[in-house]
């Protein structure tokens, strides 16, 4: 989830990481919408558009026959355009056009509208109007546009001629009132005769203000649908919707996906990132630091060991424990491998299984669990009799569960193990007892480092009791199962513990990648890092002495 700690802002990299994580969802939505847009384009009936251009011209001025017509301003153009739209919707004109088009041009096959003609820059022309017809047939669209243009201009011309004829009738009736020869010589009679002649000239030259400038031609291709444009718009809309859906889902996604998020939640440094072992690897050999020293997981364990040395730069840390939020996150396996690696570096290490409810250490180390922490704390066995010493060389892999500490072994026996013992009915009381604290203190006196496998933090309350008597805490986060509310609760509990917070160990399937093979395959073939560890440990011991 793309949520930052208080005081931190989400960066562009955080947003891009969220989108990239769900890139297939974004691409899926984009492809789906593009496919729908293309399907709609191919299913939709193609439509053709043809336009006939009309030009507006002022009527000839009889008094100034050589004067040119003026163009319309925007207001008069809107008035004339409304007149054109009203005229082409006139039922009489529609019937006239349908008669001209014949049976192939039924009214349901096309639609007609008028609009001001526009230039290439999108500006409205001064005195031109386009009558546009849209039809599934290219021929019908062109014929309808021309038919309406012709019918409109004819109707306008007929209307204007009717007005002139009415004016001629009025003037002629007034002229007929001059019956005598003397009255016909008057100035009024002469004026009326002049007006009548002007109207006759006007009737002969009348145009109705509009004439066809450019007739419509048959379109060569449909204007709708446009598959390419629709596909691109569908793709763009899909990308936008997909990204929006990703961020919407992100608000409800409580998974922690990166080590940076885990570090931000706990406020603790990252000690190591370990690849989560597969089930087959666990069955064959869980102690990967011994069975496959070149394995990236083994190198990550050694990296964890090295970072612990930096965390304990003053050398006052004598004990530490590892816990996790939930069970089955790989905590016990990590503890066992870390203890072996620490022992291989030259330290005297004791591994204590402090999980008295679901102990796992004896399984990974092939040890009997008839006696252990529970029997020592209840006084049934002595600590010296219960501790088992194991070599840290390859021979540890082959040790059987029935072998005892006195059995012959190869390599230095630097790893001691105190298993959990039989599961008691009162595990919480045993861990919280003073006897357990005394046991840890005694082990700190006898060994360089005490490593405790603590129970899962949120499963039971035993971890707080372990933290009260152990020096340092390592918290393991399994990114394949981590949820933000659980980790936040765990971080709250850890902040109240009195022990030192050493850092985080992050487990993730994604870390077993080519990056690890390239960056962790450092040792030459045949050279074991355990040998180098022993040499380093020997040099350290020599320096100390």
Notes on the structure:
The protein has 545 residues and is of the alpha/beta class. Helix content is 48%, strand content 14%. The strands form two sheets. The chain has an eight-stranded mixed sheet, with helices on both faces. The chain has a four-stranded antiparallel sheet with strand order 2-3-1-4, covered by helices on one side. Strand 2 and strand 3 form a beta hairpin.
CATH superfamily of the largest domain: P-loop containing nucleotide triphosphate hydrolases
Instruction: Tally the helices.
Output: 22
The percentage helix is 40-55%
Main β-sheet: number of strands, strand sense, barrel status? 8 strands, mixed
Number of strands: 12
Compute the gyration radius: what is it? 48 Å
**How far do the termini sit from each other?**
52 Å
Seen as an oligomer or otherwise, the chain set is single chain
* Overall domain count: 3
Indicate the low-confidence ranges by residue numbers: 120-124, 395-411, 510-545
* Shape assignment: rod-shaped
Question: Strands across the major sheet, in which order?
Answer: 5-12-11-6-10-7-9-8
The assigned CATH architecture of the largest domain is 3-Layer(aba) Sandwich
Class from helix and strand fractions: alpha/beta
**Which CATH class of the largest domain is shown?**
Alpha Beta
Strand content: 5-15%
Mean pLDDT, as a whole number? 80
Fill in the CATH topology of the largest domain: Rossmann fold
């Amino acid at each position: 989830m793309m949520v930052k700690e208080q005081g931190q802002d989400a960066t562009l990299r955080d947003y891009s990481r969220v989108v990239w994580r769900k890139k297939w969802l974004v691409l899926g939505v984009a492809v789906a919408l593009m496919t729908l847009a293309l399907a709609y384009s191919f299913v939709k009936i193609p439509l053709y558009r043809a336009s006939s251009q009309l030009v507006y011209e002022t009527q000839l001025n009889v008094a100034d026959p050589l004067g040119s017509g003026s163009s319309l301003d925007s207001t008069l153009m809107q008035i004339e355009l409304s007149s054109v739209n009203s005229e082409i919707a006139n039922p009489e004109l529609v019937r006239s056009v349908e008669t001209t088009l014949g049976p192939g041009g039924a009214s349901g096959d096309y639609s007609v509208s008028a609009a001001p003609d526009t230039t290439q820059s999108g500006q409205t022309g001064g005195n031109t109007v386009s009558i546009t017809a849209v039809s599934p047939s290219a021929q019908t669209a062109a014929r309808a546009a021309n038919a309406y243009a012709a019918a409109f201009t004819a109707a306008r011309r007929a209307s204007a001629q009717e007005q002139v004829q009415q004016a001629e009738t009025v003037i002629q009736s007034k002229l007929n009132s001059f019956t005598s020869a003397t009255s016909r010589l008057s100035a009024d009679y002469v004026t009326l005769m002049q007006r009548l002649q002007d109207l006759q000239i006007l009737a002969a030259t009348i145009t109705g203000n509009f004439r066809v400038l450019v007739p419509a031609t048959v379109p060569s291709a449909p204007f709708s649908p446009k598959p390419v444009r629709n596909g691109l718009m569908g793709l763009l809309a899909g990308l936008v919707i997909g990204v929006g859906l990703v961020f919407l889902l992100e608000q409800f996604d409580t998974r922690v996906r990166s080590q940076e998020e885990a570090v931000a939640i706990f406020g603790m440094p990252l000690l190591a990132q370990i690849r989560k072992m597969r089930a087959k690897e666990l069955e064959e050999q869980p102690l990967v630091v011994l069975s496959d020293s070149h394995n990236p997981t083994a190198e990550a364990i050694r990296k964890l060991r090295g970072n612990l040395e930096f965390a304990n730069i003053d050398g006052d840390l004598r004990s530490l424990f590892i816990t996790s939020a939930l069970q089955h996150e790989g905590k016990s396996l990590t503890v066992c491998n870390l203890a072996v690696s620490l022992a291989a570096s030259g330290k005297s290490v004791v591994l204590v299984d402090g999980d008295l409810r679901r102990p796992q250490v004896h399984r990974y180390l092939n040890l009997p669990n008839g006696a252990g922490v529970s029997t020592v704390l209840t006084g049934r066995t002595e600590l010296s009799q219960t501790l088992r010493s194991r070599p840290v060389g390859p021979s540890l892999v082959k040790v059987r569960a029935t072998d005892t500490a006195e059995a012959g072994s190869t390599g230095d026996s630097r790893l001691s193990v105190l298993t959990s013992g039989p599961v008691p009915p009162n595990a919480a009381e045993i861990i919280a007892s003073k006897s357990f604290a005394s046991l840890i203190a005694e082990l700190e006196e006898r060994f360089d480092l005490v490593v405790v496998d603590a129970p899962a933090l949120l499963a039971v309350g035993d971890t707080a009791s372990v933290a009260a008597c152990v020096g340092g805490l390592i918290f393991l986060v399994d990114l394949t199962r981590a949820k933000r509310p659980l980790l936040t609760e765990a971080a709250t509990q850890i902040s109240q513990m009195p022990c030192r917070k050493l850092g985080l160990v992050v487990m993730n399937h994604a870390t077993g990648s080519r990056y690890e093979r390239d960056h962790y395959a450092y040792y030459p073939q045949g050279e074991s890092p355990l040998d180098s560890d022993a040499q380093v440990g020997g040099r350290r011991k020599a320096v100390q002495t």
